[in-house]
Write a structure and sequence with these properties.
single chain; 219 residues; mainly alpha; two-stranded antiparallel ribbon; 9 helices; 2 strands
Length: 219
C-alpha cells in the first residue's frame, strides 16, 4: 500500500461513519461507569488510555510502518485532517477521552455525566441521521435533520440523567443547557466538537445551577 494518501473533499464513507459513531456511542460507558465507580479510579483509567492514544498518534507520524497499519485499518473511519501527515492532529476518539477527563475534573458529577452523554448520544445520533436523511443544509456539514435529531436525543438525555432535586426549575436548567449546546453545535466552531459539546453543556448547567439554586452544595 502506498504511504501517500491524497487529501480530497470526499466525506467519510458511510460504513466508516457508522463504525466511527459506534465508538462514540460506546463512550457512554464512561458516564455509566462514573455513576458507580470512584472518581479517582475513573480518572486514572482515562488518563492511562489517553496517554496510550496520544502515543499512538505521535508514533503513527514517525513510523511509516505504523502509519501504514493505521491507514489500512482505520482510514475509512477518519476525517481527512486526522490522517494528514502535514500536521500533527489528534483524532476524534482521543478528543472524547480528553474532554471526559476535563469534565470529570472540573465539574460536579451529575453535570459531568450529563455533558458527556450529550456527546456520546446526541452528537452521534445527529451525525448518523443527518448523514442519512439530511438533504437540506443550512451550513456546511449541518442539516436541519441532524440538528433536530441532536435536540431530540439531547432532550432524552436531559430527562434521564441524574438530578439533584428533580424539580421543575431543575428541568428548566437542563432545557436551557440543551438549547445552548444545540446552538453551539449548529455553529460548527473551529474547536473539535468532541470538546465543545460536553464543555458547553457542563458550563451552562453549572452556571445555571449556581444562579437558580444560590448556595447549592454539589454532591
Amino acid at each position: 500500500m502506498s504511504l501517500e494518501y491524497k487529501l480530497n473533499n470526499h466525506s467519510t464513507p458511510f460504513k466508516g461513519e457508522i463504525f466511527r459513531k459506534l465508538i462514540h456511542y460506546s463512550s457512554a460507558a464512561i458516564s455509566i461507569g462514573y455513576l458507580f465507580i470512584e472518581r479517582d479510579i475513573v480518572l486514572a483509567s482515562l488518563a492511562a488510555l489517553l496517554l496510550f492514544m496520544l502515543l499512538v498518534e505521535l508514533v503513527k507520524y514517525k513510523s511509516k510502518f505504523i502509519y501504514s497499519l493505521y491507514m489500512k485499518y482505520f482510514k475509512d473511519m477518519l476525517r481527512e485532517h486526522e490522517y494528514d501527515t502535514g500536521k500533527l492532529r489528534i483524532n476524534g476518539a482521543t478528543w472524547v477521552i480528553l474532554s471526559a477527563i476535563f469534565c470529570i475534573i472540573v465539574f460536579p458529577k451529575n453535570i459531568a455525566i450529563t455533558g458527556m452523554l450529550m456527546l456520546s448520544l446526541a452528537d452521534s445520533t445527529s451525525a448518523l441521521l443527518g448523514r442519512l436523511y439530511g438533504k437540506k443544509h443550512y451550513a456546511p456539514n449541518r442539516s436541519y435533520v441532524g440538528t433536530i435529531s441532536f435536540f431530540l436525543t439531547g432532550t432524552a438525555v436531559m430527562l434521564l440523567t441524574p438530578k439533584y432535586f428533580g424539580s421543575l426549575k431543575e428541568y428548566l436548567i437542563c432545557f436551557t443547557a440543551l438549547i445552548a449546546t444545540t446552538v453551539v453545535d449548529s455553529l460548527s466552531p473551529p474547536v473539535d466538537d468532541n470538546l465543545t459539546i460536553p464543555v458547553t453543556c457542563c458550563v451552562v448547567l453549572y452556571i445555571m445551577y449556581i444562579i437558580m439554586y444560590p448556595g447549592i452544595v454539589f454532591s
